[in-house]
Amino acid sequence: MTLAFPVRDITYSGDALRGRLDDLSTALHHGTTVAVSSSFWAHGGADRAILAARVRGLVSEIARVRNAVYSVVQTVPTAESARVTTLEGAICATAPTPVFGPGSLLTTAWSGGLWATLRPLFTHAREFAPQRAVTETAVAVTALSPRTSHPPRTLRDRIARIPRGDTHIRIDRFDSSGGSRFEVFLSGTNFAGGAEDPWNASSNLDLAATGSSPALQAVRSAMDAAGVTRHTPVVLTGHSQGGLIALALAGSGDFIVDAVITIGTPVGVVPDVTNIPTVHIVHPEDPIPVLGGVIERGSSTWVVPASNGERWFDAHHRESYLPSAAALDAIDDPRLTALRAAIQSTGTGVARDYRAITLDDPP
Amino acid sequence: MAFPSFPDPADELDRVAAALEWTLHRDDWWGPARRAFDAEVVLLRDEARLLADELRIAL
Asked: In chain B, what are the domain boundaries?
């Protein structure tokens, strides 16, 4: 069966890492030459002995990084081949339903099936990262002016509310006779963000390595300011890094989380939640989710080919996921129907955006 | 200073630094994993350069 989308083009990891492996091997070759030659020049005094020891240390460090890259390179071709195979298998097995237009395929893959063979690159990122304890960074959160909001009714409604621009957090509050309900919407990484932006790329790694990040702290502060307590139900919707934060918050046990909805999120980066309904929407053309590797059991992942032929980062944009969420809304799946009903708010609410700034950079 | 069968150690360390510098400028990889990788390589490159300079003085 021929796939309608170019899964086989996802070869970024292998090529990029193999090039770096070559460079590190070259550096290691020259460094080793110096280390071996030190037996001729290291005996002329303490200074030389110290220099020789430093050379050996440098070579050892280069070898460590090279070996880490090598271990990743070894996994990538297998992982990507398996990904293609599994996708093909999933499509063949489920007899995909055309959803919108000829050639459009919608395939569902539940936990463990589709992604189980992927090795998490983030595991290796953690090896590269300096080991450090959780550092609480000072983050200032400012609430912007409130506005009227109506309850979201679909997955697409929720994805469309994920903030863009320099605000990363939106919180909608709906009050009814049954009490208050909250919907939290979290944006993805700002790859151009500097140290002052809690949503910069390094915040991802902070979250993976320590379980905390400036962005996570900012969301907690905003939720506190919005009135979210341990007793108010909340639905978390996030794009990319926002999805990671949503999962981290859900896993913390600090809130009554009714559901977690993510798009384009490398969900394997953080511990999965098993007792909360989750919907992860993933484009096979999107390079970001694969960073997370394995999705633990309990997750529900929906793989939907990008509807307009987007690839690479174009397939990662929030806007690219809007038609995919609409496609899921359109299908008659009892799991999604039940989820939508369970998290539906009523009445008129208030929406607020929150702007966050990191006040100081951790050492 | 030359040694039998071995190239000059400072020149070799320059080559180590150059290889590490080269890998920093490959632009076909992205994301948090790259940032962590690059940070590590920058430290190694700087140490290689420093060692090359010190070896030129010491030898």
From this structure: 9-58
